[in-house]
Specification:
By secondary structure, this protein is an alpha+beta fold. The chain contains 19 helices and 15 strands. Among the domains are: about 160 residues, no CATH class; about 210 residues, Jelly Rolls (Sandwich), CATH 2.60.120.650. Strand 1, helix 9 and strand 2 form a beta-alpha-beta unit. Helix 1 crosses helix 4, helix 2 packs across helix 3 and helix 6 packs across helix 17. The longest helix has 23 residues. It starts with a helix and ends with a strand.
């Protein structure tokens, strides 16, 4: 274990042992920091289980951040103990203060020139990485995002990579995706295309035309398209710790289907089972959708740049449209709640803004983490999937710059003024799952990702996207699905000869006006707030969306 890894682990354990009275985590033990410290140090696995039980409630935004903090710190501590038990100092039973004193002493005095390395096949390594990734995915790792990133980076730097030493096979492709492609439709109603639109020209467009627009030659400088290509399997292997990093994968054709589900799996498994698989192979579609992968793996964030267009102060949703009406209703309900209950302020935000991990400078991990990210920048989500992946017809409550980084997609859009009698929005649907239904790890992992997406809704919008639903044991929950159309546009697109059948199912939909495009690598699509859109992948590919308002 090299010196940098020693320092990171020393810093991590020291930070977790030193519980700040203003840290929201103390609420897990009613402010008794000594009891909390005892729980974390002596039984981190028990702390994880306790926090997990409190995280599984609905709506997730009502979960006290203290349980997210507890889950995070317990996961970090357990991961550090795994490393130490295998490389530095085997854990004693029970874990007590004397053990930690001796462990910290050894870490402080560890000789950096010993050049101890982690073997890539060490059986404890992958489970340790998964511990840290689950904390990121399930809780967002409040106040500890940078610490987890630094710890994973130090582990990777200390590990003998199988990629650096293995000779490549002559038949091995470096592409991340299978060459399988889906047919491209004939474009009848094209979206206008412009090259290298200026900031002022874009601002004028979204205030006057308020329509979709394809923008070319705006992101060609991205490293993801050039020097650090996201199309490269080898590059992704390096960025995901030889494929060990966990990612949330949606399984099934679309989230509107009954057999749709979610799992959290290693990136290498995602590539082998879903991205680099020919269409004639049996098995469901798997894709990564609407996930903040760049926050989970910050090194990838350096491969892109936020388009300048996202810094235009945009207009709100157009009056009379579904998003406008919903936001107005939410604003009225919010004002009513504040009037009835009065606004309360906790010390959580004040603590988060002032909190910086002690000793982080030495470990190279100064933290700018916060309990809730209040960044003024856009919400960035990544989409990775094979050809034929679809996003059902739906609308979002944000303006969107949608960038195609790898591959190509067909996109069709309908105006937010399209009557409900033509677009057929869904209504409220009921989710009812009890603890007895959590029968395997795949189900449990699905719940974890749903909770992670709900965390994003805390910062984004009180309304929940269709996939942002989790359960409270033995209790039915109503989910607003009105941003998703009942119309199966994929079926209509693939079977145009059945027009009479589609007209019987959804009268008037085939007459609704739309615009469409094929967005290719290096191109941007501006989707105005509230516009209904349907997306189908023509090739395996990667997209990044920038939501802002």
């Amino acid at each position: 274990m090299n010196a940098s890894l020693s320092k990171v682990i020393l810093h991590a354990i020291t930070s977790i042992r030193r519980v700040d009275e203003d840290d929201p985590i103390v609420r897990c033990r009613a402010g008794r920091s000594k009891d909390l410290s005892k729980l974390l140090l002596q039984d981190p696995e028990g702390a994880i289980k306790e926090a997990d039980s409190h995280l599984r409630v609905f709506p997730f935004k009502d979960v006290d951040v203290c349980w997210r903090r507890l889950y995070t710190d317990a996961s970090i501590l357990k991961a550090c103990l795994n490393v130490c038990a295998n490389l530095v100092f085997p854990a004693a039973a029970p874990l007590d203060e004397s053990y930690f004193y001796r462990l910290l002493y050894r870490l402080r005095n560890h000789a950096g020139d010993e050049d101890i390395r982690i073997e890539s096949n060490a059986p404890w390594l992958t489970p340790t990485i998964h511990l840290l990734d689950r904390a990121l995915i399930m809780t967002g790792a409040p106040l500890r995002e940078n610490l987890i990133e630094t710890l994973i980076n130090a582990l990777q730097a200390s590990t003998r990579s199988t990629l650096q030493h293995a000779a490549p096979k002559q038949t091995e492709r470096n592409s991340l995706f299978s060459p399988d492609a889906a047919p491209a439709p004939q474009i009848k109603y094209p979206i206008p295309r412009v090259s290298a639109l200026s900031f002022e020209q874009f601002r004028a467009h979204i205030y006057t035309s308020r329509t979709p627009l394809v923008i070319t030659d705006a992101v060609e400088h991205w490293p993801a398209l050039t020097t650090r290509p996201w199309s490269s399997r080898a590059y992704w292997a390096d960025r995901t710790f030889d494929g060990r990093r966990l990612v949330p994968v949606e399984i099934g054709r679309a989230y509107t289907d009954d057999d749709w589900g979610q799992q959290i799996i290693p990136f290498s498994e995602f590539v082998d089972d879903y991205l680099d698989r020919d269409r004639n192979q049996d098995g469901p579609t798997g894709y990564l959708a609407q996930h903040d992968l760049l926050a989970q793996i910050p090194a990838l964030r350096n491969d892109i740049c936020i388009p300048d267009y996202c810094y235009v102060d945009p207009p709100g949703p157009e009056p009379g449209t579904p998003v406008y009406l919903k936001k107005r209703l939410e604003a009225e309900e919010s004002r009513k709640r504040k009037t009835e209950q009065g606004a309360t302020i906790t010390n959580t935000e004040m603590y988060a803004s002032a909190q910086v991990d002690a000793g982080a400078v030495e470990a190279g991990s100064a933290s700018d983490d916060s309990v809730n990210d209040d960044s003024s920048g856009p919400y960035i989500n990544t989409w990775i999937g094979p050809s034929w992946t679809i996003s059902p017809l739906h609308h979002d409550p944000y303006h969107n710059i949608f960038v195609q980084v790898v591959g190509a997609k067909y996109v069709r859009l309908y105006s937010p003024h399209t009557p409900a009698s033509q677009i057929y929005p869904k209504g409220t649907e009921v989710v009812n799952r009890s603890s007895d239904e959590i029968s395997n790890e795949g189900d449990r992992q699905a719940d974890i990702q749903l909770q992670r997406e709900l965390i994003a809704s805390i910062n984004a919008d009180d309304s929940l996207s269709p996939e942002m639903a989790t359960r409270k044991d033995e209790q039915a929950q109503a989910i607003d699905m009105s941003n998703t159309s009942q119309v199966d546009l994929a079926a209509i697109e693939m079977s145009p000869a059945e027009a009479e059948q589609w007209e019987d199912l959804w009268p008037g939909f085939l007459q609704a006006e739309y615009v469409e495009t094929i967005i290719k690598e290096g191109e941007c699509l501006y989707i105005p707030v509230g516009w209904w859109h349907y997306v189908r992948s023509l090739h395996g590919g990667i997209s990044v969306s920038f939501w802002w308002e």
